[in-house]
Every structure is written in C-alpha cells, then in structure tokens.
Write a structure and sequence with these properties.
With 414 residues, the protein is α/β, with parallel strands linked by helices. The chain folds into two domains: 43 residues; 357 residues, Spore Coat Polysaccharide Biosynthesis Protein SpsA, Chain A, CATH 3.90.550. Helices cover 35% and strands 15% of the residues. The chain is built from eleven helices and eleven strands. The strands form two sheets. Strands 1, 2, 3, 4, 5, 6, 9, 10 and 11 form a nine-stranded mixed β-sheet that branches. A two-stranded antiparallel sheet has the order 7-8. Helix 2 links the parallel strand 1 and strand 2. Helix 2 packs parallel to helix 11. The longest helix is centred in the first third of the chain and has 41 residues. The termini are far apart.
C-alpha cells in the first residue's frame, strides 16, 4: 500500500514538472513570437545591428581623430560603487591607449569605506599597469576637494563619475579636441544624459519620449524573484504601456515596486502626462530632484540608442570632425561635472578649492579667470543618478545598462 502511494505521489510530481516545463516552453515561444511581431511592427532589426549600437566597431577607434602628441591624458574616476563601476570599467578599458583609445592612465580616487566595493577596486587596479590609486582622507565632498590637489602638473584630465554607465567611443576624443582647440574654455563637458541643465535641452530637442511605470507586473511571478543582474536593454523587448487615458504620473510619485520597469506609451502626444513635462532649466530644479524625470530620460536614451537616433541630442544630424563640434555655453550656471576635461595647472594654480568642486570648477573659477564652461553637444555620455534621485534604483535600468555594456562594450574583457 505504501509503495503504491509513493508511486502515485512520484507520478503526480513528474506530471507537475512536465506541466511546468510545457508552460515554460510555451511562454518562451510566445515571448519570442511577440517580440518578433513588435520588431516587425516598429521596423526594427530582429537583432541589434552594428548601426544600432552607436559608437562601437571593430575598426579604427575613432575615424577622423588622431590622439594629440605630447599631451598626457589621464582619466580621473571617483570610485565608490561596484554595481556602477563594473559597467563603467568596460567603457574605460575600450578607451585606454593600449586598445586604441586616448587615456594614457586612469587614476582611481578611493571614495568609499565599503569593504566589498574596495575589494573590487583592488581587482581593477591589478588588471592594468595604467591604473593608479589616489588615496585621500575622507569620502564624499571632502574627498572630492582633496583629490583635486593631487593632480599631476602639465597633464590634461578627464574626470568621470563612477556612475557614468555609457559613453560613445568618440566622447573623450571630442571633449579633449575641443579643449585643445579652445584654450579659452576652462572646462569642456560631455553632453550628459541626466544632467539638470542638459535634460531640459534634450527634452526641447525631442530626445525624451513618453514613458511611465507599468501599472501591473506583466511577467509571471516565477520570473520576478528579485531584480536580475541583466535584463534586455532594447525597448522593443517589452510591451507598450497600457492604462487609463487620463492617467498621469508626476515627477515625485512613488514607484510601484522594486525592480519595476517603465514602458513606452504608444502616442508621442502623451508626453504631457509624463514626469518630464515638469522639467526645468535649473541646476537645482526638477531635473536634479525628480527620480521619475531621471528614469524617463534613461528609458528614452535606451530607445534612441536602439533606434540609432542619438543625433537628437546633438543639435543636428551631421557629425562634424576636427574640432568643429557644436557647443552649448552654460554662462553663469552651475553645471554637473559628470564627465569633463580640464588642465591640471588650471586647477593647481588656483587652489585652494574653497567650495565644492562642482561649484568651484563651473562657477567660481570661470568668473575669476573670465573663461567659459562649454558642453560639447556631439560628445555623448549617460550619468545614472544623483543622490536626490536614489529611487531610480527601484527600476530595472541598471540591469538594462549592464546588459548593453556586457553585450557590446565589455565583450573583450568579460
């Protein structure tokens, strides 16, 4: 009797496993078919093409640009968070001179006390002789100020935040070339997605699209056991947003749940009921404070990247070569310094830095020296979050950027 019961129990378990396996196969096939139809409907390639992953190729690193002779170019990274830097690191590797890039060295400023993150920094430092540790006493804004005192005279620095999660192969050559061609510019910045001033510019150039958080979780529960380390970065891998026609999502609404995603609204005119409709051209405005505006800018960027429409950020469709890139002058506005280039001597000769580095470099020192801060509109980069936008971490964006980086920029190093 007992053996018969065990047999029936085992049979039921096998049947359940077969049903689950059948469900999984049907779900996978249905998902693939759905995505194929979306690709066809949107006129998109089934698989990302070389054109759809702008800025990356196996040919010459940057056509039309030659690294200037006699100039040592040093990357300056304020290291703090592994889950961001593991994405950034792949882009940095691509831009080392050993791999055809322009960075002769990268100096890593230790800006955290977290042991796990510091262990990852040790791994990074051991991976290349072109890497160097910069140790300062204190972290945060204290560490920022002290790090600038340790620049090496005579060299050109490219300062990069540790949560820059994407930049094109030509971004460093473009900002460096503009800096060298225009010595009157004290600082040259990349054109950064998720920057308070530039976000307003991007919105009015048509680079931001209508996105809102999903109202319900469209994936089966089994696939939502926690935010994955990677999720498909292409927007067409997901359905369009569905919900009430009068639904509005404001810049400071709470997220639906951890790990949620934002979905594309079908009509461009619906952008008026999305967070970005409230963006301001203001260093301290909604572009800095709103996690929802930041999220919408990120999902819009990934759409533009997939559709090869990054020119919408560049103030024109043509890409000029040889130092004639399009310029946006900030003029008496504090600019986020997520990715900038500056001469070491311009900093060292004017110390002490009597305010936070961003204020000092983009407002105080430019006024003192009567020199401009310029944004190179053709040099694109993406900055993940400011401290006031921490809720962006409840989205699946970091998983999508990791997917893009590991699929494209990191292919040679993972």
């Amino acid at each position: 009797m007992a053996s018969s019961l065990r047999f029936r129990t085992a049979k039921i378990q096998r049947s359940r496993l077969l049903v689950f396996a059948l469900f999984f196969v049907i779900f996978t096939v249905a998902t693939a078919f759905y995505q194929l139809r979306r690709h066809k409907a949107h006129g998109k390639p089934i698989f990302p093409t070389q054109k759809s992953v702008n800025g990356f190729s196996n040919g010459p690193r940057v056509a039309g640009y030659g690294k200037p002779e006699g100039v040592k170019i040093i990357g300056l990274v304020f290291f703090g968070r592994k889950n961001r830097v593991e994405i950034l690191q792949c882009f940095l590797q691509r831009n080392l001179v050993d791999n055809g890039g322009w960075l002769d060295e990268i100096h890593w400023v230790k800006n955290t006390d977290n042991r796990k993150d510091l262990a990852y920094l040790e791994e990074i430092l051991a991976s290349s002789s072109r890497y160097k540790m910069v140790e300062v006493e204190g972290v945060g804004f204290v560490g920022y100020g002290l790090a600038w005192t340790q620049l090496e005279p005579g060299n050109l620095y490219v300062k990069i935040d540790d949560d820059v999660v994407w930049f094109a192969d030509d971004t460093i050559p473009r900002i460096v070339s503009m800096k060298l061609a225009h010595p009157d510019y004290l600082v040259v910045s990349a054109n950064v997605v998720n920057s308070p001033l530039m976000g307003w510019v991007h919105y009015h150039m048509g680079a931001v699209h209508p996105y809102m958080p999903e109202l319900t979780d469209y994936e089966p529960t089994i696939f939502n056991l926690g935010q994955p380390s990677r999720k498909p970065w292409t927007y067409w891998s997901y359905p369009t947003w569905t919900g009430p026609d009068d639904y509005f999502f404001g810049p400071f609404q709470a997220p639906p749940y951890d790990g949620h995603c934002w979905l594309r609204l079908p009509n461009d005119s619906d952008i008026s009921r999305t967070p970005v409709a409230d963006i301001e051209y203001n260093t301290w405005g909604t572009g800095l404070k709103s996690w929802a505006i930041a999220a919408q800018e990120h999902y819009s960027f990934l759409e533009n990247l997939a559709d090869d429409r990054l020119n919408t950020y560049r103030m024109g469709s043509s890409l000029d070569r040889g130092g004639t890139d399009k310029t946006w002058l900030t003029i008496d506005q504090r600019l986020s310094i997520n990715m900038i280039t500056v001469w070491a001597d311009d900093v060292l000769d004017n110390l002490p830095m009597d305010d936070v580095d961003e204020q000092w470099l983009t407002l105080i020192l430019p006024k003192k020296l009567k020199r401009q801060v310029a944004v190179n509109m053709d040099a694109l980069a993406v900055h993940f979050t400011f401290g006031s936008q921490g809720t962006v971490e409840t989205t699946d964006l970091l998983a999508r950027y990791r997917d893009y980086a590991f699929e494209n920029a990191c292919a040679r190093w993972i």
